[in-house]
Amino acid sequence: MIKKFIRSKIILIGTIICIFLLILNIPTTVKYGVNYQLSSYQIPLYLKTLNFFYRHYNYKFLVRRIINEKSTSQAQVKNILNWTYQNIRPVPKGFPIKDDHLWNVIISGYGAKDQISDVFATLCNYAGFRAFYTLNPDGIYNHTKDNPYPTYVEISNEWHIFNPNQGIEISISENDRKKLEKISFNYLENHSNNQTPFYRILYYLNKLISRI
Question: What CATH number does the domain located at 27-211 have?
Fold first, then answer.
């Protein structure tokens, strides 16, 4: 009786392990772009998961290095802005524009204008600030060729606009600041610059539900 019970447990555990290994090896698609030409390749789920957590913990470690956790919120965002401007430079002439994972932009040290804004927004999110980047909405400030992708960061319940490509904060009126509250809510409902596991899962679940 005891041997039969042990045997059944071994079979059950073995079955669970086999199913788990099969799930981990499910093929997943990774998309990447070079000079705005999109391609894709497949990797097993376990590798995609490992890569995700590799990037996640590197983001966390990098942010801790950049900010002074004892400083004010404004100073922390300023530190991230300065770091982004000093370390992520425009794409050198003749170099390809690569678009895969944002962490690779940080490693390479260069990116397109939207990627530089994306780096700043992502690091702000990891520092605990709600942030996103997009094209100029509703004419809140003068749109220029050198400032196409502003980044919006909420500091102490108040939204601010930054231009990471020039390493500056953009001055706006109080009326425009109030507009940002509505814009930010609508944008954050449908987009995510937050790369942490919890928010990425919510983001993809929301995309999945919207297709049903």
Answer: 3.10.620
